[in-house]
Every structure is written in C-alpha cells, then in structure tokens.
Write a structure and sequence with these properties.
Helix content is 30%, strand content 19%. With 344 residues, the chain is α+β, with helices and mostly antiparallel strands. A nine-stranded mixed β-sheet has the order 1-2-3-12-9-15-6-5-4. The protein is globular.
Length: 344
C-alpha cells in the first residue's frame, strides 16, 4: 500500500446505507494529534456499535490473496486428510472442525447449544490455528501430507504474526482513547494467545433455507475474546444486530478489515465497550434460475490477552458506575475454555 502522507488527518466516515463506521487506520502513524483523534474514533465505534471497518491496514492485499488461496485448497483436500487433523479439546482449540461439529450460539449452557445445533446446525467447516510452541497443544499442520501443506504452514505462521501486531496496534489505540498509557496492554499481549480460523461455507441448495426458515450458515453469537479481525470475500452474508434488535448487513468493502469487540473486552471495560451479536446468513442472489448458493470463504483472527492475564474492570471504567465492578475477576484462559466448552 502507498505510504501515508504527513498531512492526513483521522478519517471516520459512514458510506451510504451503512451504519458501521469506516476508519482510516494509517492516520495512527501520521502525527500525535491524528493518533489521538483516530484512537478516539476507534474507541467510540466500539462503544456505540461494537463493529467498525478499518482501511489502509499494514497487511498487504497480496498476502490476503495468498492466505485465501491456501485456505481454499486446504478445504478441497480429501476428507480423510482433514479428519486426520481434527480438533480435539477446548483447551487446545487447534485443528480441523467438520461441518456440523460446532454451533455458534448466544447460549452459555452446553445443553441449550446442543439443542439449537440439532435443529439448525451451522453450515460451515473450519481450521483452527493457535500459537505455536505451546506444550501439549501442537498445531495440526498439513505438512505431513505434501509440500503444499508445508507452504500452507509457512504462510499461516507468517500471517498469524502480522495479525498479532495489528491486534497490538488496535489495543494501543483503545488505550489512548480511554486515557491510558499507549502501551498499557502490550505486556498482556506479548505471547500472542490468539486463534486464526480459516472458514469455508460450502455451497448450499436454496431449498435448505426454504424448508427450514431458521437455518443460517452461522448462528447468532458474540465473540469471546478481546477483538476479532475479519477478512471476508465479496460474497457477503455477515449481519450484526442493532440495539433495536434489527439485523444489519455488513457489506464487504474491498481493501478493508472488519473489526469487532468481543465479550472479554466488554467485561474488561465494565461494558463500556459493546460486544455485538452477529451471524452469517445467505444473502439474496440476483441470478435467475440458480438453485444453489455458491461457497463463501472468510479468515478470522480472534484476539485475546495472554491466557494468564487476570481480567477485571480496567481503571476508569467502574469507579463512577453505581454498580461498581459488574464482573468478578477471571483469567483469560479459564474464561475462553468455559465458553468454548459450551460451543462444541
């Protein structure tokens, strides 16, 4: 991408028919004043909507093209190869998740999630990648099969680190917006206990949705961690729920990253920041006579504090609240395992 000019100012805009703010991320590095202005815009978007678009991020379009290409080819592998790399436990959260295994849901209890899964299973498969080098929790790389698998591993490892740095920059912006020291969160993000998820929503016959009006590709849910970076193709289908309960399309915008706040960040800020429910549905097609919706691909990077970070209300978020701290303290790792245990 072209370097940022020194005269740029923080830019927050709302494209026509779009309620989610669009923020120019490169203005964080143009001047101290622009950094503060952009940081406040990012915090405001998280407080009001829980979602935003970022443009002009540091991750190159060519990198994303490469990542999406390897992702598509992974899901085209024979089923036995994917199954050999299967996801095992919530504490590991690594490996291949077959279609129907996971149900994204707003429910917190496993029995309720399982009941919802039986009637409206998610129409997706995924591949989960965590931090390398964690004892007892190795990543399930396809390099055991062929050279393509080795290139897949190298590409995803490099992309994982690029997203880790983007997470740090966004959390620094949140810190500035909240009046905290710019690097307040850095020491809590150093390990990179995050999750890179490759997602494939296979092609689906139209009558699947016609026969079951409640069917979606991914059920309504909020994310569990601090923030989520979403890189989506141009198929569309993502929707967010407004405060009034309506569903709003998050229309793909080329060259942008969709970022949303998760439950842990809402908890960390005593609910000053919103963790907004979202889902993936099948967008209407304009093609006549087509009886099948094409496949959709996305790449999601779930950002978390390091698992040993103790999460309790941050300074300045609870002192003036009449209820004080709304949540008890909990370690990040324990919280995430609790949430994942209900989902699978």
């Amino acid at each position: 991408m072209a370097p940022a000019a020194t005269t740029l100012h923080a830019t927050t805009s709302t494209p026509k028919n779009l309620a989610i703010p669009l923020i120019d991320f490169r203005t964080l590095s143009t001047s101290p004043a622009a950094k503060v202005q952009t940081s406040k815009a990012i915090l405001s978007a998280f407080e009001e909507d829980g979602f935003l678009y970022l443009q002009n991020v540091s991750i190159a379009p060519s990198t994303l093209t490469k990542v999406f290409g390897y992702s598509k080819r992974f899901f085209e592998r024979q089923q036995w190869q994917k199954d050999a790399l299967a996801w095992t436990t919530p504490s590991s959260n690594r490996g291949y998740v077959a279609r129907g295994r996971e149900k994204t849901s707003s429910h917190l209890l496993r029995d309720e999630v399982q009941k919802e899964k039986s009637s409206n299973p998610d129409l997706k498969e995924s591949f989960e990648i965590g931090r390398d080098g964690v004892e007892g929790h190795p990543n399930q790389w396809p390099h055991i099969f062929d050279l393509e698998g080795a290139h897949f591993r190298k590409t995803m490892e490099e992309f994982y680190l690029e997203c880790k740095e983007m997470h740090r920059l966004i959390m620094s912006a949140i810190a500035i917006g909240m009046g905290l020291e710019e690097h307040y969160f850095d020491k809590m993000l150093s390990k990179g206990d995050n999750n890179l998820r490759l997602l494939h929503y296979p092609s689906v016959k139209k009558d699947v949705f016609e026969k079951n009006k409640g069917q979606v590709r991914a059920g309504a849910h909020s994310d569990y961690g601090s923030i989520t970076l979403l890189f989506q193709d141009m198929r569309g289908g993502l929707q967010v729920q407004t405060a009034a309960g309506h569903w709003l399309d998050v229309t793909p915008i080329e060259g942008t990253v969709v970022v949303n706040a998760g439950d842990l960040l809402a908890r960390w800020t005593n609910d000053l920041i919103k963790s907004t429910k979202h889902r993936v549905v099948e967008p209407p097609t304009s093609e006549e006579g087509v009886d099948e919706y094409p496949a959709r691909y996305s790449v999601v990077y779930f950002c978390n504090p390091d698992f040993d970070t103790w999460i309790e209300a941050l300074p300045g978020t609870w002192e003036k609240d009449k209820y004080g701290r709304k949540y008890g303290g909990i370690s990040c790792g324990d919280y995430l395992v609790q949430r994942l245990s209900a989902t699978y």
